[in-house]
Amino acid sequence: LTACADTGLLSRGREVHSLCAKLGFDATPYVANALATLYARCGDVHRALAAVGRMGSRDVAAWTTVISSYAQTGRAKEAILAFVAMLRDGASNAARPNEYTYAAVIAACANISCVHLGEQLHAQAAQRGFASSRSVANSLVTLYARAAGRLSAADAVFQESAAKDVVSWSAIISGYAQEGLAGEAFALFTEMRRHHCPRPNEFTLASLLSACATAASLDAGRQLHALAVAAGLEHHAMVRSALIDMYGKSGNMSDADVVFLNRTKDDVVSWTAMIVGNAEHGHSKRALELFEEMCRVGLKPDHVAFIGVLSACCHAGAVELGLRYLNAMSKSYGLEPSKEHYGCVVDLLGRAGRIDEAEELIGGMAANERDGVVWTSLLRACAARGEEQTGKKAAERVMEAEPWGAGAHVAMANLYASKGQWCEAAQERHMMKQKGVVKGVGWSSVTVGGEERGVGVFVAGDRTHPQDNLIYEMLDLIYYGVGMARYVPDQMNLASEVELMVNTYSSSYN
């Protein structure tokens, strides 16, 4: 049974199971646990639980198998409840949690971002001497890395862990990549390869490719692609979809097409990445064709695929088609639209000038789905169309959902300014100052350096770079040269030339 579980041979395992049942061994602890492990690893959680249920009393291995089965099949709450039941049943030492039990239940907490309970389990595991074990530490790093604002806790657990494996490194690299800290993620990857684990796994590469996609760092992404080929991981669904996403967000859809066309088998994630990539690049027709083709090959689209499809409809201005896809989500595919889907359709209707229909669509949503995302989509449409009354209503809802956000105030100020209502526009700006709301600073990134390339991030008017004086001197020289090349004395008077140069200079550092 263990051999069948390790190799994923479910059909052979079932044959052995039937033999065990005939011989009356299926209720003995060792056999029942082996059966549960077989079914859990093959994704059949119901049979795994049934195998454990045949035992007279559950030991720690049985309970751990149950908790792991729930956690690995997306039933995190049931995994936590099973752990609570285990604690209640822990009168004997045979049913007391061990390090693998804690690793499984903490992983369940990570899956649903239940950090508070995860912290309590962390304390309990530390009290029992399990917190430093590799399996528990890996689950803790994943828990804290996925939680907003807890990356420092993840890093602390990672640094304290004595025995690090590729899972440990992948978890912390993923945490930094998700926070957009591409430089730190790559520094950890370099350290991992030099001193500890020279061979990355699919999770490591997918996380780093995601960081490259966020920073649009095409050179680094191509190097990771080469590394994936060398490691034999380029055909893994997770890596392939990450490569498609990276090339798409770096503006290179031709390479994304090559990766997609070289796939060895179809999977929803890779198709979805292609649909979203084409939609983001404005290739609406191609995105919609891919969606229809994906359905024809027998793959069921997920929520992300429909976001790509609705975005494509939005770019193409295909209002009726977008509405049909929104209705088809629940009727044909059994998927309930989320706020992101409604936000796309509200944007679609708004761009078409159908503001009333967009507002009506929001009114038909569930109350818990009507958050700042959908109201912001409506507000932007109103600002673009000069719809003052509906815009005010949408702005009020956005401010209720995001009281410290600047977007609603800026959108309304721009709406008033476009209609020449300067007092109202100034009042919106004044309200921002009174509330202490600050508009987010725009930023850009650039890959710089020779062999030791790095991604440099900067904001408008940035003075944090150690060579900022040289950078601004070069900017001044460039703008002086542009001005000289553009200057035509007999076609432009001095006043207009000075005004043009002042405006150019003031905006150049943006």
From TrEMBL:
It holds the Pfam family E_motif. Keywords: Repeat, Transit peptide. One of its GO terms (biological process) is RNA modification. GO terms for molecular function: RNA binding. Coiled coil: none annotated. InterPro entries: E_motif (IPR046848), PPR_At4g14850-like_plant (IPR046960), PPR_rpt (IPR002885), TPR-like_helical_dom_sf (IPR011990). The keyword S-adenosyl-L-methionine does not apply. Transmembrane segments: none annotated. PPR repeats lie at residues 59-93, 165-199, 267-301. This is DYW domain-containing protein.
